[in-house]
Amino acid sequence: MELSLMLMEQILAMVLMAAAGFLAAKAGVLTGDQSRVLSKAVLYIALPCTLVNAFQTDYDPNILGAFLVTLAIAVLIHGIFWLVCWLLDRTGRQLTPAEKASVIYSNAGNLIIPIVLNTLGQEYVIYTCSYMAFQGFLVWTHGQKLMGGEGRLTLKKVVKNPCLCAILMGMALFFLHIRLPDVLGTAVSSMGSCVGPLSMVVVGVLLAETDLKAAFSSRGIYRVVFLRLIILPLLVVALLWGVERVWGHSQILLVSLLCAIGPAAATLTQMAQLYKSAESRYTSSINVVTSVLCAATMPPMIVLFQMLTT
């Protein structure tokens, strides 16, 4: 339970970081345009550095094996999410494209990585990469199509996605047994450590710019919240409990759990704006509401998983 408390404390710390961004925006210190610059710094610099640094460890068949297991788990988790959406369609409770994308795809990067880094340690960040790699493939095909774009994966899309590039680069360094030189390694590690604070400041500014009353009064959003933050996390807990009975490694599985139970992916909001989706504002509202409420829903899921696996 000590680990559960550490995780909850880290989530609370990130909420306070978001509050700092919120207050800064309300005081006029930061504007929406400035927060978008910070968001780009996270996406194109800090987060890729974190991902590359995650693979800066000595080659170990056990690490590779665990990475492949978590990749298979990521496939199963997304399969469950797709199945739930399919069942809703079959029963006449169809989700809109924005709702469906928000239910399936979570913010497994800039929100979850700092939590893993500051509680479980740098050596566990590598297991977020398996989830992000598979989800990244789906987001830039299926997710992009839902948001109004072309649902075909091309080399250009892969190259343009800094997270996928960073994962591929990190994996290449890992398999080739290449460690970054000391100075470069320190720079990459230091830049990567900024991902948490910067991300949460951006979330805070986004909250300040959002009509929270309108967002929280939308009935449709609460169906998404119920699925994304309660129903699907419970299904994932059940799946990972079963895997833990067979495989063990509960702390590695905890990383997969964290990746799956977070708020809706922030990338979807950017895609909705880029492709001029009719649900652009709605997608943004879903992201804001799930980002706020996940601070209350994630800790119980973590405690439940810890209780089942101890």
Shape field: globular
Give me the Rg, rounded.
18 Å
CATH architecture classification name? Up-down Bundle
Can you tell me the residue ranges where pLDDT is under 50 for at least 5 consecutive residues? none
* Strand element count: 0
Q: Quote the average pLDDT.
A: 87
- Note the run of SSEs as H and E: HHHHHHHHHHHHHHH
Strand content: under 5%
Structural class: mainly alpha
- Kindly state the percentage of residues in helix: over 70%
Please identify the top-level CATH class.
Mainly Alpha
Q: Biggest β-sheet, characterized?
A: none
What is the domain tally? 1
CATH topology: Na+/H+ antiporter like fold
Assembly of the depicted chains: single chain
Question: Kindly, what is the distance between the CA atoms of the first and last residues, rounded to a whole number of angstroms?
Answer: 9 Å
Q: With helices defined by DSSP (H or I, 4 residues minimum), what is the helix count? A: 15
